[in-house]
UniProtKB/TrEMBL annotation, chains A, B, C, D:
Domain HTH tetR-type, residue spans: 12-71
Any GO molecular function: DNA-binding transcription factor activity
Transmembrane segments annotated in the record for this chain: none
Descriptive protein name: TetR/AcrR family transcriptional regulator
Residue ranges the UniProt entry marks as DNA-binding: 34-53
Pfam families: TetR_C_34 (PF17929), TetR_N (PF00440)
Keywords linked to the UniProt accession: DNA-binding, Transcription, Transcription regulation
DNA sequence: TATGAATGAGAATTCATTCAT
DNA sequence: CATGAATGAATTCTCATTCAT
């Protein structure tokens, strides 16, 4: 670990190390970990974290940005490979999308936390960057979707994707249970809520898309 | 009833006073208020709160329970008045549902907080009660829906309602912005995300139901 | 240590215990001690301090207030016993005043810190109270002085006392040395600054008053 | 002079650049700025600052030294132009001195900070240098004063100047208010303390000198 | 000499919860 | 039942200083 000037790549590397540490701890604990813990987990000192992220919230936004970014990166090619016709499209998308989401394990818990975390101590600037990126990605993906499937009018591709994402997020929240609650799901009286997220997501997204292509 | 023992009604009254205070403070501040503030707002002492709710999380669960309960109470009659045919059903439900949601202003922020709050310090028992109640209400409403509209097979009414709720929750989270972020929504680059919740919800729910009835 | 309601006197007692602890630590270390240390020294927990002083600065202001208050309390009777004639007055006051100051050991270090401490994190409200009290005490003392000695015109008593206090404070700062510097004062080259505060104060105040009564 | 070694002038130049930066930032913010900021403002790296000042306190002492040095540099000629007679001397000096002080804007805030700053982390060696210089300047100025005005006995010139400086410093502290407190000065109850520093200083110094020359 | 990345001690404050009266 | 004083764990962020290059 040199003490002198770092190239941009090295800096970016450190950033990623910190993000990875935060990410791991978050996964393990289900709560945004204290900065001190992130530092330790990354093999660095507390103060060092603040050389890379000026506030704790920025770490969170960066995490979210990463997760959403990689979802979109994989979504675009998927959209471009969709069949044209209505019913097939819905089915094909649902199939692919559920796999995509299953692979982006951390996106949803993170996104679900966003409101709660950011209500408390909002980092406006990074948040703008994040939302801008999201808006652009959504618009772009919407256009891909429209071109490929002929969905009309203009803008409905974006809308459909926003609703798809919303359904995903909401479903995840409704069906995700903290560990100590899982056991309860066996009980007869809770059957109605003991559903697996992925099949459920498949059904919902499928139906939602059917609705859009039927309309 | 003697002077010493408190009747159940009195107890329940106190409970409701506390809940109302918590509710109001939450609405005003957008954050779960400290227990001390709830006590003061209810005209009680801090310690007294703990005679009615053993932890702060229980207050939160009770709040959520109330909000969801009243949503369901109004949902049932609405379902019973739905038209039979497919396309009409979707439209009629969406119309009514959006109004219902608009009237249940606090449900969504509260529900959106649930994951974050409960991950931290979970009160298993009250949570079980809550989830059980929810499961029952959902099942009941699902059956009403199926009977009224002929939606089949059995269980799909419940599923549809769950997905409808999920879409609502997700959409709310995607489109709700903490005050300081609102200003940014004017910017051109954020247009795609500057949508009004209610019309958007109407479109989404309408399409989702169309999908279910078309399937 | 009871856990239930405390009378106002008991509360005031606790406040004084905390103040005394802060006072002692400050004297020992020459620096405003951390809140944690004050708490420990007072036999209380950290959080308890905040039940009595909402911020650390308020502790400081309270300390200062006490010190100045007790100075004025003793100043007033002294002024009332002053001889009428000019030259005598100056001498008599200087004699008495120096003794007074010598007895108010903590006032000066505290007052000397005020600017530095308060520039950083100002508690406006308690500061207003403090300054208001000071202004009143000064005015009252000024009037006593004028009545007793015939000093004119109106207001010059207050002015003289303000200047006296200023000279005291400035002199203390010029002549007070942190421990590790004391040794150096023996050196020949520092003779000019190796003066004892009290005699020096006597000379200065005496001359200042002479100037006022001569004018 | 080769490319490697830095000449003394170059070194001294760097030192002055750093001091000027610290000075400016201090004036702008009213607080001793962090070393990192001083470095940036001087166009240097943080580490570099430590090649010129071993601790932050040394920067502070150097600043103070400068300010006092330039005050004395202008005081000496002023003393040499003083009239001989008693009453006139006091008046003439007060006139001149107040202007001098008004022009040395930074001396007083800096000096007022000295006790607080130096109590914490004292740099003995530079402090000795500073105090020695001050003692010499004071002695020299005192002799000038005595020679010019005939003030006796020997040493009283030095004393008078020390007291004059003390009065100045104390008065400044008593009458200087951090920005957020300024507003309060309008209030009736604070009138007694809402005095302008310069006229007040003039009165005080005038009287003090009268006292010395009358004695 | 100069750099600037890394360090980590340090401090203030909040707040859920307990429990003696 | 009700009170409210006391607790102390928990957490963020700052900044002087060091030192490998």
């Amino acid at each position: 670990m040199g003490r002198n000037a770092m190239s941009d790549e090295e800096k970016e590397g450190r950033r990623r190390v910190l993000l990875a540490a935060a990410h791991r701890l978050y996964r393990e604990r289900g709560v945004l970990p204290p900065v001190a813990d992130i530092a330790t987990a990354a093999g660095l000192a507390k103060g060092t974290v603040y050389l890379y992220f000026r506030t704790k919230e920025k770490i969170f936004v960066a995490l979210l940005e990463d997760a959403l970014g990689s979802l979109f990166a994989r979504l675009l090619p998927a959209l471009d490979r969709l069949p044209r016709g209505g019913r097939d499209t819905a089915k094909a998308f649902a199939d692919h999308y559920v796999r995509l989401i299953a692979d982006s394990a951390d996106l949803l818990p993170l996104a679900a936390l966003a409101n709660a975390v950011l209500e408390q101590n909002l980092p406006v600037e990074p948040m703008r960057r994040f939302k801008t990126g999201l808006a652009r990605a959504l618009g772009q993906a919407g256009r891909h979707l429209e071109q490929r499937t002929g969905l009309a009018p203009g803008g409905s591709g974006e809308t459909l994707l926003l609703h798809t994402y919303s359904l995903t997020l909401g479903l995840w929240q409704a069906l995700s249970y903290p560990e100590p609650l899982r056991a309860l799901l066996q009980e007869e009286s809770l059957r109605g809520l003991a559903r697996d997220f992925e099949p459920e997501l498949h059904i919902g997204v499928h139906r939602l898309w059917l609705g859009y292509f039927a309309a």
